[in-house]
Amino acid sequence: MADTPELDQVAEMRRKIAAHAELPRAYWVVFAAVCVLIAGIPIWSSFLPGADAYLRWGLLAVALGSAAYAVVRRRRSGVYLPRRVFAYPSARGLWVAVMAGTAAGFVGVYILVDLGQLGIALAALVPVAVLASVGQIRIRTVMRRDLEAGRVNP
Amino acid sequence: MCALLQGAEWVDFATVRELLGVSDPMVSKHSRTLETAGYLEVRKGAVGRRPKTWFRLTPTGRAALLSHLAWLTELRSAVDQAPGAQPSHPAAAEAAREAGDP
């Protein structure tokens, strides 16, 4: 029997749609920088005691900017992938682990600042940002693999 | 087209046309057929003043696609395992050579 080009076509189409799960490098650079800023909020608050309102507005700006980026990106590409990570079976466990690790890192920085260890807290910002960024990149890669394998259920 | 829509919530008309590499009438024709069969949901709207059309598979369409792909995969396995048959897939051909199959 001749080969099955239909299955090859299906694989190719899945690969094309899966490419939209990846985010550009510039996004991850900004993401890492924002992670450092957010994880360091207790540190910046201790250096600048009256800056809480500015920090809150900064957080709001980050949240709005992130939402706007997502909307514009989906609209421009014309591809609306499932937003819930739980639609991607292989990414669920990894997402929970990365979120738990990132939260633990943020809490750790808070505790270090509470204990007066500002130097150590500052040094801890980099590994926390790296964990969050690398973790999210890995989650995106796994999401892409799920799309290529046809495992996603929107 | 169904494979393209399988993993996505919505894909717009122009993107479907570009990714499939076919013409507008072809996309329209196939989308009408799929919609009539209950496999496709079509949403019409606008972004600013520009009219837009988005597609997504219905649960029925998703189930039909998975069923069809499972059948094709089974068919390919059966053909590759048949004695004297030419494997249809490069990986199956390699496995047959290693097993000493002529």
Largest sheet of chain B: 3 strands, antiparallel
Question: N-to-C terminal Cα separation of chain A, in Å?
Answer: 35 Å
Structural class of chain A: mainly alpha
Low-pLDDT regions of chain A: none
Oligomer: heterodimer
Measured on Cα atoms, how large is the radius of gyration of chain A? 20 Å
Mean pLDDT across every amino acid position of chain A = 90
Annotated CATH topology of chain B: Arc Repressor Mutant, subunit A
How many separate helices of chain B?
5
Number of domain modules of chain B: 1
Briefly note the structural class of the backbone of chain B.
alpha+beta
Shape of chain A: elongated
Largest sheet of chain A: none
Taking all Cα atoms into account, the compactness measure Rg of chain B is: 19 Å
- Helix count, DSSP H or I runs of 4 or more residues of chain A: 6
How many domain units of chain A?
1
Overview of this protein structure:
The complex is a heterodimer of chains A (154) and B (102). By secondary structure, chain A is mostly helical. Chain A has one domain. Chain A contains six helices and one strand, in the order ααααβαα. Chain A has helices spanning 5-18, 25-39, 41-47, 52-77, 91-114, 118-149, and one strand spanning 79-80. In chain A, α2 (25-39) runs antiparallel to α6 (118-149) and α5 (91-114) packs antiparallel against α6 (118-149). The model of chain A has no long low-confidence stretch (mean pLDDT 90). Chain B has 102 residues and is α+β, with helices and mostly antiparallel strands. Chain B has a single domain (1-85), classed as Winged helix-like DNA-binding domain superfamily/Winged helix DNA-binding domain (Arc Repressor Mutant, subunit A, Orthogonal Bundle). Chain B contains five helices and three strands. Chain B has helices spanning 2-6, 13-20, 24-36, 59-81, 90-98, and strands at 10-12, 40-47, 50-57. In chain B, a hairpin with a 2-residue loop joins β2 (40-47) and β3 (50-57). The chains are: A mainly alpha (154), B alpha+beta (102). The A-B interface holds A 1-4, 6-7, 9-10, 13-14, 16-18, 75, 77-83, 146-147, 150, 152-154 and B 1, 3-4, 6-12, 14-15, 19-20, 47, 54, 56, 62, 66, 69, 72-73, 75-76, 79, 85, 88-89. β1 (79-80) of chain A pairs antiparallel with β1 (10-12) of chain B. Chain B: Residues 80-102 are annotated as: Disordered. Chain B: This is Winged helix DNA-binding protein. Chain B: InterPro entries: WH-like_DNA-bd_sf, WH_DNA-bd_dom, WH_DNA-bd_sf. Chain B: It comes from Allonocardiopsis opalescens. Chain B: Residues 3-75 form the Winged helix DNA-binding domain.
